[in-house]
Amino acid sequence: MDEVKIKPNAVGLRGRLALPGDKSISHRVAFFGALSSEGITAENFSSGADCKSTLRCLELSGCKVERTGGSIRVSKGVNAGEIKAPLDAGNSGTTARLLCGLLASAPGVFAVITGDESLCKRPMGRIVSPLRSLGARIDGPGGGAYLPLSIRGNCLSGGAFELPIASAQVKTALMIAGLNAHGSVTVVEPAKSRDHSERLLQHLGVPIRQENNRITVYPCSDLPGCMLRVPGDFSSAAFWITAALIIPGSDIVLEDVGINPTRVGFLECLKKMGASIEVEEKEPSGGEPVGNIRVRHSELEAVEVGEDVIPTMIDELPLLALLATQAHGVTRVTHAKELRVKESDRIRAITQGLKNLGADIEELDDGWVITGPTSLRGGCVESFKDHRIAMTFSVAALAAREEVVVKDAQCVSISYPEFFKHLSVLSGG
Ligand code: S3P
């Protein structure tokens, strides 16, 4: 599937859908499982290519990965010695960064971590430099700024860090290193990023200390194990939330979705815009809150999105830009410069694609100014091989008045291989 053609003028989305397991939580299940002899067993583990990259890299590092029926079990441990094959994190920033934390703190290991073309351009200095100050030995291009990185695992000391930007990947990599280190590791973030790692450790009964945006982990040579069900991925649900809001006649229910408050800033923002959204809380799973989300088509008003909420909706900002093209008034998104170093430069990709479809969108260094509502026309849009960009434009296409062609749409499999199947279920096609 090089490109996909989406039929325009979709009629209302209807029905109920259970989402595949959350990508961020699945990565953490695998990495914390890799630190536990008992192991972590998970149902509804993410089906995406990114989490497959994590499992493959962990297996190559000597961890045990067992697949039985619908569940995955990951258990200890990293083999000391040279890992001969390069560990290919594919397109996954989370895999590459968390592996750095795991391997740099495993004495006797030698490994090379690499990735695809996009990942090799993404910044790694943000993880290499704090790990080095704990004593990690990591080398790579630009003084360790980019993949491929070679890592010689070693006994790390404890330490404390103030991160210049909120990043759950950096925080988690340092927490993993801290569990293996000789002293405690403290991470302070300028704003709270997603807290799945903290919740999973607490669910396992591992002592950690949390005060606002400051978190401390202590050495723990063998984590307890557990069994859990990974909640549905809120970031995947967000595509259908957006589609239902902008397509008249829509009324859908998304079942068993993770509704962790550090992930659902998008919902809060949509409520401010006047969206009809109801959340019914269900039983938590693995320390994570879960709920059913009902969404109906709504008239939307513009909104201002700034610094404090950006980390809680970072992966949903492309969708917010699309929604803003259908909302009344001027929407401003600022302080979102991190979007420039995701799987693609998402600020540029969204500006270019939505402009092609006739939207009134201005690119800022750190966001957009979007005036709506505008009726979207057909055309051809580049996904830049970025899964979230391909899915955002596929949803835009449903609301367009002519056919839209989305280039390189196969990349949806990075996080959501079932995306086009689910699109046809909800749109009755
Ligand atoms: C993720 C954290 C976020 C997010 C990414 C997944 C994670 O990135 O954008 O898709 O699983 O920890 P940052 O760590 O850069 O905030």
Q: Point out poorly predicted stretches.
A: none
- For the report, how would you describe the main beta sheet? 5 strands, mixed
Mean pLDDT: 97
Task: Give helix % range.
Answer: 25-40%
Written description of the protein model:
- It is a single chain.
- With 429 residues, this protein is of the alpha/beta class.
- It has two domains: 3-21 and 231-427, UDP-n-acetylglucosamine1-carboxyvinyl-transferase, Chain (Alpha-beta prism), CATH 3.65.10.10; 23-229, UDP-n-acetylglucosamine1-carboxyvinyl-transferase, Chain.
- The chain is 31% helix and 25% strand.
- The protein is built from 13 helices and 24 strands.
- It has helices spanning 23-33, 49-60, 93-104, 125-133, 141-144, 168-180, 196-204, 234-246, 265-272, 317-326, 346-356, 387-399, 419-426; strands at 3-6, 14-18, 40-43, 64-68, 71-75, 81-82, 87-88, 109-114, 137-139, 149-152, 159-162, 185-188, 208-211, 214-217, 226-229, 251-258, 276-281, 290-296, 304-305, 329-333, 360-364, 367-372, 379-381, 404-407.
- Strands 6, 7, 8, 9 and 10 form a five-stranded mixed beta sheet that branches. It has a four-stranded mixed beta sheet with strand order 2-16-18-17.
- α10 links the parallel β19 (304-305) and β20.
- α2 (49-60) runs parallel beside α3.
- The longest helix has 13 residues, at 168-180.
- The radius of gyration is 21 Å and the shape is globular.
- The mean pLDDT is 97.
- Bound molecules: shikimate-3-phosphate.
- Shikimate-3-phosphate binds at residues 24, 27, 94, 167-169, 172, 193-194, 314-315.
